[in-house]
Specification:
By secondary structure, this protein is an alpha/beta fold. It has 12 helices and 19 strands.
């Protein structure tokens, strides 16, 4: 039989989370962000559940082609735009919209021979300082694009660096003001709301604009954890990483566990060895105390995570043994939920990274 570790994708939860975003911004159109292979879920595994969105957004043409091959005829947006001039040929052929964030991309469009007018999202660097034209250069970039016969329609976008800021901090206000000042009288649709801004400030018309771009919230992780949990936002986990106990050890007081002997028992106890390790994408930095569910009961990891195995404390689950279900994150068989955000916090990272880091050797299934 195959090794028992498994990543299970939950389409019903994806549909629920999509509707949760709809409720937050009922009069805005919605890009379902499926970059990074749908945050590690697999584009093919999430497509049907997310096709209620108004468009799909991603990073590269290969992902865009996959969405078209699945039968999507609606809008597709490349969030980083094209990476070389010949990419524009595929954009023309597949009617793919694309961001424009630098002069070179405008130059490529100007030299592109096409009968298909391109729809572009001109990107402003309002303070994130990754991609985009600064507010002072934004209108000149718009004027260049607007003069090109290759361009059919220009929309506008920016990206917030601090949409998850705690209350009392500036958050999105400065960037939002810069964006709206620079685009105030320009014609075209606008998109500024990422996951955090959409849920937290979506009631503000200047935030929801014409399009929002939810990403992590679609996959059941909180965009501002630990300020609010996924459950508090009304989100459901869309990915469960589960495995089984493949061995049981009986420890005496003073016995240690794993590489580096990072955990030492202070009393007799039972330990379960789980078929999951950092080669499966489980964070090596999760030390003793990281939450885990065994047969749906909350317990903890013990010692260091190994390449292929980790240890869990069976004290709270006296009936557990060989073959018992282990939920590393997501939904257990009895319905109990362990948020991916809790596990990520124990590893000093974010739920985003854990979703994307599930290794190819872990089989995926859809429930």
């Amino acid at each position: 039989m195959p090794r028992p570790i498994l990543a299970t994708i939950h389409p019903a939860a994806l549909r629920h989370n999509l509707e949760r975003v709809r409720q937050a911004v009922p009069d805005a159109k919605l890009w379902a962000v499926v970059k990074a292979n749908a945050y590690g879920h697999g584009i093919e595994n999430v497509f049907e559940a997310l096709r209620g969105a108004d468009g799909f957004a991603m990073l590269d043409l290969a992902e865009a082609e996959r969405v078209r091959q699945l039968g999507w005829r609606g809008p597709i947006l490349l969030l980083e735009g094209v990476f070389e001039p010949r990419d524009l040929e595929l954009c023309s052929r597949l009617s793919i919209w694309h961001a424009v964030h630098c002069d070179a991309q405008i130059d490529w469009l100007a030299a592109h021979k096409t009968q298909q007018g391109h729809r572009v999202f001109l990107k402003m660097n309002s303070g994130m300082n990754r991609l985009g034209f600064t507010p002072g250069r934004f209108r000149a970039a718009w004027a260049r694009l607007n003069a090109l016969p290759q361009v059919e329609e220009i929309s506008f976008m920016t990206h917030f660096s601090d949409a998850d800021a705690p209350a009392g901090q500036p958050g999105i206000s400065v960037q939002l003001q810069r964006f709206h000042d620079a685009t105030r009288d320009l014609p075209g649709e606008r998109s500024v709301g990422n996951s955090a801004a959409t849920l937290r400030q979506g009631s503000d018309a200047q935030v929801r604009c014409d399009w929002v771009r939810p990403g992590i919230v679609l996959y059941g992780s909180s965009p501002d954890y630990p300020q609010r949990t996924a459950a508090e936002w009304g989100l459901q986990p869309t990915q469960t990483l589960s495995s089984r106990i493949i061995g049981v050890q009986h420890l005496a007081a003073g016995d240690s566990v794993g590489y580096g002997s990072r955990f030492t028992a202070d009393a007799p106890m039972r330990l379960g060895t789980v078929a999951c390790g950092y080669a499966d994408g489980y964070p090596r930095h999760c030390g003793t105390g990281t939450p885990v569910l065994v047969d749906g009961v909350r317990t903890r990891t013990l010692g260091r995570v190994s390449m292929d195995m980790l240890a869990v404390d069976l004290t709270p689950v006296p009936g557990a043994g060989l073959g018992s279900e282990v939920t590393l994150w997501g939904r257990a068989g009895n319905g109990a939920v362990l948020s991916i955000d809790e596990v990520a916090e124990a590893a000093g990272t974010l739920g985003y990274e854990l979703m994307c880091a599930v290794a190819p050797r872990v089989n995926k299934t859809i429930d």
